[in-house]
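Sample pair:
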Amino acid sequence: MNFDDIKSAWNNDNEGSNIIVPSSVDQLKTLQLPVEKLRKAMQMEFFVQLFSLILIAFMPKIFSLNQVMVIPFYAVYLVIIAISVQYYYKFRTFYKSLGTNTLSSKDNLYALYYEAKLNIEMYKAYTYTLLPFALIIGVMYTVGHKSGEITRLLAKAADHQGIALGLAASFVLLVLAITALTEEWISQVYGKYLKQIGQVLEQFKENA
């Protein structure tokens, strides 16, 4: 859809009442570019996460998980899959809405902006929801690893307060690092494009 088509669509929206039309083709391109980049980022994100979920299925074999822990591991894995399917359905719905037709009306633009913010919060919730399951899998690996080295380390930690405190501090730092990395990833991959869209919408208001 070119600039004239979009301008015509916006001029016909609600019979021309309170309609915001870009003042130039450059301004429209300024908006379309971050939308396209947002779509590409989401597409990349989908394939990375899909690959990660498939890879997790092979963790018992890769990391020599004890056979006793294999069934509990896959029980947790199925819960992760169920949560992920629900998230990916909403993810795909939003991705499909990011076509060029999102630029066809003022209402669509604002809906796009706020839906993007909502999906970013949903992404955060999805990531943090999986953290406890990652912890459970970590415990399974610790208890059920065939070499028993980690179990012996935990046994030493029970007898030495310094080792126990070190392990606890390491766990807390790991959780904080995952949280910080998630926030930074979202900011770099999605936040900057959302900010650009918001800036263009502000320009539309000023030119109205």
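The chain has a mean pLDDT of 75.
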